[in-house]
Specification:
Elements (H helix, E strand, L loop, with lengths): L2 H28 L6 H33 L1 H6 L6 H18 L8 H33 L2 H9 L16 H27 L1
Helix pairs in contact: 1-2, 1-5, 2-4, 2-5, 2-7, 4-5
Length: 196
């Protein structure tokens, strides 16, 4: 597997984790429970900035090389990468909803939850399409030289949440929430192992 595909797949796993956190907070919102809207805002800030700077340009480069190398394969991959703009717009809608929910002019909790669920579902479907359509076609059709050119564009940017060296307080809070979420999941799994 290509280093680029490994990195993109790792980014996808991180996004799936973040979508789980959004799901948890939206469930609390819908149930009238206390929810951490700031955590959702931090997640949205991350998803709106990090992928556009580092992740999506790599996928765009894969698409461009695939179009040149194997146009029919690029066609078969569909408009997976065209969805990036739609997802960005949906993230902005959710961000606005989260920031104004419950205000006089803002959406209801149910409306906010609906936007959150749409964003989450579409992002997860998008990730699945990239991993089951685009990436296999790229691996099959791009040359070693193509992959090297793409790898050369990876850069040394450190992921502000998952890469260590967190510099911004909002991302530190997000990292702590992720660690707590992972610890909680590990305890649940350990409990299942003891019962089973």
């Amino acid at each position: 597997m290509s280093l680029v595909i490994s990195k993109l797949t790792e980014d996808h796993r991180n996004m799936v984790l973040l979508m789980s956190l959004i799901g948890r907070e939206v469930d609390a919102l819908e149930n009238g429970e206390r929810w951490d809207h700031r955590l959702v805002e931090f997640i949205l800030d991350y998803t709106q900035h990090h992928p556009d700077c580092r992740h999506h340009p790599l996928e765009d480069e894969i698409r461009d090389k695939l179009k040149r190398r194997a146009p029919e394969a690029a066609q078969a991959a569909g408009d997976v990468l065209a969805e990036h703009a739609e997802l960005i717009d949906l993230a902005h809608r959710l961000d606005d909803a989260v920031k104004t929910v419950g205000t006089k002019k803002g959406p209801t909790p149910e409306e906010t939850a609906a936007v959150a669920r749409e964003y989450r579902e579409r992002l997860l479907a998008h990730i699945d399409a990239e991993e089951t359509q685009l990436f296999p076609l790229a691996l099959e059709n791009l040359s070693a030289a193509d992959w090297q050119e793409i790898e050369d564009k990876l850069g040394s940017d450190i992921d502000p949440v998952f890469g260590g060296g967190i510099k911004e307080q909002k991302y530190e809070k997000l990292r702590k929430a992720i660690t707590a979420w992972e610890d909680e999941a590990a305890l649940v799994e350990a409990g299942r192992d003891e019962v089973g």
